[in-house]
Amino acid sequence: MSRIAVIPCRPEHAKELLGRGLRPADAAEIWKIRALPPDKGLEEALAASLLAVTVTADGKVAALCGVAEKSALSGAGVPWLLAHADFERRETAVTLLRLSRKFIDHWLRIFGRLENMADPEHLVSLKYLENLGFTLEWGRMISGPLGHPLVPFWRARTCVG
């Protein structure tokens, strides 16, 4: 059983994650969405984030995730996650999904709506998003800066009462 921890994100965590290597699909997704290499894409994501955390598995950086504000007037947050292959290990999957749900719930209390786009070829990420309750808008595909197709996704805070 792996020991999972969530800690505040620090610059050395980004260096460790990049040194360990991103999942190839994450590196491809950064390129398709931002037309940037992984190090620059991660640097931009961290700089834009209002909240960012590091997820470790057995003391090693397994993922960085965060949320940025889309714009001052939108009220929407832009969630992101970049990970090492350890993030997909069977023995960590249930724990990481539970933690991810807590982060999404917290971010929805702050923003009310979360939205971003994903690479339609990043199948693990798409399944993860669906398991977190996001809606994938396959009928509203958009083009990335280099013409790659991207699928928008979103989730809104639900009103209770």
Shape: globular
> What is the tally of beta strands?
8
Largest sheet entry: 8 strands, mixed
Termini separation (Å)? 40 Å
SSE string: EHHHEEEHEHEEE
Helix content: 25-40%
Structural class assignment: alpha+beta
Low-confidence stretches: none
Cα gyration radius (Å): 15 Å
Hey, roughly how much beta strand do the residues contain?
25-35%
Mean model confidence by pLDDT: 93
- Number of helices, where a helix is a run of at least 4 consecutive DSSP H or I residues: 5
Account of the 3D structure:
This protein has 5 helices and 8 strands, in the order E-H-H-H-E-E-E-H-E-H-E-E-E. Helices cover 39% and strands 31% of the residues. The N and C termini lie far apart (40 Å). The longest helix has 22 residues, at 90-111. It is an alpha+beta fold. The radius of gyration is 15 Å and the shape is globular. Strands 1, 2, 3, 4, 5, 6, 7 and 8 form an 8-stranded mixed sheet that branches.
Annotation keywords:
single chain; 5 helices; alpha+beta; 161 residues
Outline of this structure?
The chain has 161 residues and is α+β, with helices and mostly antiparallel strands. The protein contains five helices and eight strands.
List the helices and strands and how they pair.
Blueprint lengths: L3 E5 L2 H10 L3 H11 L3 H11 E9 L2 E10 L6 E8 L6 H22 L1 E6 L4 H9 L3 E2 L5 E2 L5 E8 L5
Parallel strand pairs: 4-5
Antiparallel strand pairs: 1-2, 2-3, 3-4, 5-8, 6-8, 7-8
